[in-house]
Amino acid sequence: MPDSRSTTGRRVFLIRAAGAAAALAFARPALATPDSLQAAIKDVVGDAPLREGRLVLELPPLAENGNSVSMTVSMDSPMTEADHVRAIHVLNEKNPQPHVMSARLGPAAGKAQVTTRIKLNDSQKVVAIAETSDGTFWVAEADVIVTLAACVEDMPQ
């Protein structure tokens, strides 16, 4: 006949191991924060000032599904050799990574506009930054309320 203490100890061990496995399985990846957003902005612009007014960031104010949120970033620019948008960067404050995307542009692009769909983990601020050929940086922000979050899958280490 088995010892009841060894059976109880084994049950306790199995229950605790199952609980730990479940906790790991449902653990969410670390999220970007407002501080990591500011650090990502600094990585893009360095110490250059951000200007407001010319860049337009279009996002729906309410996104029903964070897995696919429509976004357009545009800037009125002649897109000539002397005056064009070099890059458009999109950053966020609550996804697993603060850097969403970057698009490199040049005069041949003809238009300073990027349209795509992005994932948003939660209701948050999204920031777009445009770098122009004269070295200035323009910024636009949008707040989005997300009802069904995305980005909950495991992130590679």
Distinct helical segment count: 2
- How many E strands? 9
The geometry reads as: elongated
The name of the CATH superfamily reads SoxY domain
Query: What is the CATH class designation?
Result: Mainly Beta
The secondary-structure class comes to alpha+beta
Q: Which strand-content bin applies to the residues?
A: 35-45%
The H-and-E topology, N to C, reads as: HHEEEEEEEEE
Helix content: 10-25%
Secondary structure: elements and pairs:
Elements lengths: L3 H22 L8 H12 L4 E3 L2 E4 L3 E2 L5 E7 L9 E8 L6 E6 L7 E7 L5 E9 L4 E10 L11
Parallel strand pairs: 1-9, 3-9
Antiparallel strand pairs: 2-4, 4-7, 5-6, 5-8, 8-9
Structure notes:
There is one protein chain. The protein is of the alpha+beta class and 157 residues long. The protein has a single domain, classed as Sandwich (Immunoglobulin-like). It has two helices and nine strands. Strands 1, 3, 5, 6, 8 and 9 form a six-stranded mixed sheet that branches. The chain has a three-stranded antiparallel sheet with strand order 2-4-7, with no helix packed on it. Strand 5 and strand 6 form a beta hairpin. The termini are far apart. About 4% of the residues have low confidence.
